[in-house]
């Protein structure tokens, strides 16, 4: 059993931003900063999925196989995991902006790598650098949004923060393929223009963050640095394992869609439109974001059960659409899977946050994100490997069977955790 660095360091010293007596001008600055960080957060997450509808173009031009595409995609998830382990926790020491600005800078560097050429090594480098930026962005931007919301509306409900952070995070993952697909479909130079547009947007995002008030005072004496360590000891071991398996299963669906959906729609279904490919991925992530918002009042256990059932049904419908080469069924299955995955992951977040003691809550959530992003990459990479020997539909059949077994196991473990773990309930 490992011990996290967070056990040996002081809590982040937030600036006194929640005081109702603060001048109205200062509160307005934090209110404007809230929306500027939300914009930067959305742009950063959207850029990470811009290549999704473009992969078939790389396949056609350079002869990439489905396996190669999934390797390129998995490289992004590897970058996220590395970044979460190395830098996901240090904004508590140095301030939010000192992590947000480099994270967006890394993504901007990724855009410049894409623009410098389109060979496989450059694609891999671009995805890795982008993943490093996203790993630094997610937790830091979420924390900054919460603190800015509190500063702007002291004592108010956190519903606005929860809604905006969900839309920026999960919704942003859907916006990227939509914008990238439309630009690739209707503007020339489809492998350059989307990255040029997002390079400009990322630059604007950096300006927005630079103008935003800081909410964490930098520690003058910083603790000894150690990477984030993964542990299941977060108040309720059984509950954390259920949440971790839920996060893995939810992100596995997202990984599958963003790595192979565009190729399947353009190849097997013979719909080569880049805009359509981007729209399909956008709808799946959009459905997840909407479902997360609408189920906010459900208990953690109820969200988990709803997510498991909806994701299982969606996977079966999705597989039927792939086997019959039926676009409406494929899309319906994707939407149901996205809804289920979104709700399931929200249940996992709620369970971990409720079970962990306050002193280890950040550590617990970071561990959940690490495991979930492994789920984002490993199944997609496994499907890519399988397609070297069998068809994409056959590989998806295996993937669906394995994931349904995992969902069943999560359901069984969840019932036991609900019966024996009051903190999870």
Automatic annotation (TrEMBL):
Q: Which domain of life is it from?
A: Bacteria
Q: Which residue numbers delimit the Major facilitator superfamily (MFS) profile domain?
A: 32-425
The record's GO CC annotations read: plasma membrane
- Organism for this UniProt entry: Actinacidiphila yanglinensis
Give the residue spans that cross the bilayer: 32-52, 64-87, 99-118, 124-145, 166-187, 193-217, 238-264, 276-294, 306-323, 329-357, 364-383, 395-413
Q: Where is this region: Disordered?
A: 1-22
* Localization: Cell membrane
Report the membrane topology from the UniProt record.
Multi-pass membrane protein
Main localization is membrane
The molecular function terms of the Gene Ontology recorded here are:
transmembrane transporter activity
**Which UniProt keywords are present, listed alphabetically?**
Cell membrane, Membrane, Transmembrane, Transmembrane helix, Transport
- Protein name as catalogued: Predicted arabinose efflux permease, MFS family
